[in-house]
Amino acid sequence: MSEYLVQFNNISKFFGKVIALKNVTMKLRKGEIMCLLGDNGAGKSTLIKTLAGVHKPDEGEIIFEGEKIIFDSPKEALDIGIATVYQDLALVSLMSVTRNFFMGREPLKGPPFFKTFDIKKANKIAAERMGQIGIDIRDPSQAVGTMSGGERQCLAISRAIYFGAKVLILDEPTSALGVHQASVVLKYIVKAASQGLAVILITHNVHHAYPVGNSFTVLNRGKSLGTYEKKDISREKLLSMMAGGEELDKLEVELKEMNRIST
Amino acid sequence: MSTKSKSIESKTDFNQDDRLKKVSKFKVLLNRPELGALGGAILVFIFFGIVAGDTGMFSAYGILNFLDVSANLGIIAIAAAMLMIGGEFDLSIGSMIGFAGICIAIPAIYWGWPLWMSIIFAFSMAVLVGYFNGILVVRTGLPSFIVTLAMLFILRGATLALTRLITGRTQVPGLRVLIENDPIAWIFATDSFKWLFTWLGSMNLIALRTDGTPLATGIPPSVIWFIALAILTTWILMKTRYGNWIFASGGDKNGANNVGVPVGRVKISLFIGTAVAATIFATIQVLDAGSADTMRGTLKELEAIAAAVVGGCLLTGGYGSAIGAAFGAIIFGTVSMGIFYTDVDTDWFKVFLGAMMLIAVIFNNYIRKKVTESK
Question: In chain A, which residues have their Cβ closer than 8 Å to the Cβ of B312?
Answer without folding.
Answer: none
